[in-house]
Amino acid sequence: MRVVIVDDERPSRGFLASMLGQCPDVAIVGEATNGLEAIPLISELRPDVVFLDLEMPGMTGPQLVGHLKGARAPLIVFVTAHDDYAVKAFEVEAVHYLMKPVALARLREALDRVQERLDAPSAPEPPPAPRPDLDRIPIRHRGDIVLLPIARVASVVAERELLHVTTERLDRYTITYRLKDLHQRIGAARFVRLSRGCLVNRSLIARVVPLAGGRHAVVLRNGQTLPVSRIQSRILRSTLLRL
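RESULT FIELD:
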């Protein structure tokens, strides 16, 4: 169990450290003298639990806890000489509350509670919310940001890390984005995939030209002619080329 001690009083830190040293399942990985010092220390060391003094100059224990929210926030055990702070301790969901001077039996009880929390199965993280559909693509162009409406996009062709976007008027732009992700965000129903590296706007397809070997080429209204892979040719025949 990785432990950090935060207390502005050196004797209190030393006494608690000596008590924790009697517990073989504990490793003290750091100490801090105040809340401001503790924030980067906890962020770097990622302890399982922080033994935290409630009243410290500059930043109180509960104020420090407010800076430690998140999935990787450590568990908190408050340590104080004032028993009237118990309610405040549990308002911030502390695991336990110890009075100074800390008794070994109470410390062991606190550690057992911490271990129970660490061993409990964590709730599954909710899946990330889907990103909203784009109605226009922001593109850096000659020092400006062009907001290109999706309806004006004729084709998107991937080249390694880059996507080459061509409009219905044959304006050409280049962006850095994953083709798969862009396809999802500009509407899979509006854009058809011609190959692993090419999308075209369905509404701007003028005609489809059959080629040898069961393949096709697509001609867009802006004059672009783009090849269709053999697999996507079969999909086109079963979807786009049937009444």
